[in-house]
C-alpha cells in the first residue's frame, strides 16, 4: 500500500472512532443531591446528546449513584429504556425540587414513560432505592447551593 493511502485509511479510522464513541459520551458534570437525608452522586445530563444517551449501554450503577436530567424549561418529558439493561426508577421533579411522581422503568423497553405534570428535572436511580429510603411524591430533592 502506498504511503498516502495508509495515511487516508488511518485518518478515516480515527474519524470513525471519534464519531462512534461520541455517541457514548458520559456527562462530566457531577453533583450530590440529598433526598430524605440520603446523598446521591449523580451525573448531570444538560445537553440533548447527554439526555439522549442517558444511562444507555451501562452494565452497572452503584446504589447511591444516578443521572439527573435537566431541561431548559418546565415541560412534560418522556423516557424509554432503549439499550439500558439496568432496572431503574425515575423521579419526576418540578422547578422547586419537589418530586411530583415516581415511576419504574423496565430494562430495554421501548415504551415511553411520560411525566403527568410539567417538570424541570428527572432523576434516574436504581430500582427500589427510593422505596428503600422512604421517598414519596411530595418529598423535596435538595440540590447544591446555586445549582441551576
Can you walk me through this structure?
This protein has helices at 3-22, 48-53, 129-133, and strands at residues 30-35, 38-45, 65-75, 78-79, 88-93, 99-105, 113-114, 119-126, 141-142. It is an alpha+beta fold and 148 residues long. The chain has a single domain, classed as Jelly Rolls, CATH 2.60.120.1140. The strands form two sheets. Strands 6-5-8-3-2-1-9 form a seven-stranded mixed beta sheet. Strand 1 and strand 2 form a beta hairpin. The longest helix is centred in the first third of the chain and has 20 residues, at 3-22.
Rg, alpha carbons: 18 Å
| CATH level 3 topology | Jelly Rolls
Kindly estimate the percentage of residues that lie in beta strands according to DSSP: 35-45%
Name of the CATH superfamily: Protein of unknown function DUF192
Write down how many β-strands occur, each being a DSSP E stretch of 2 or more residues: 9
**What would you call the shape?**
globular
Number of domains: 1
SSE blueprint and pairings:
Elements: H1 3-22, E1 30-35, E2 38-45, H2 48-53, E3 65-75, E4 78-79, E5 88-93, E6 99-105, E7 113-114, E8 119-126, H3 129-133, E9 141-142
Parallel strand pairs: 2-3
Antiparallel strand pairs: 1-2, 1-9, 3-8, 4-7, 5-6, 5-8
Summarize the structure.
The protein is of the alpha+beta class and 148 residues long.
Keywords:
Jelly Rolls, 148 residues, two-stranded antiparallel ribbon, alpha+beta
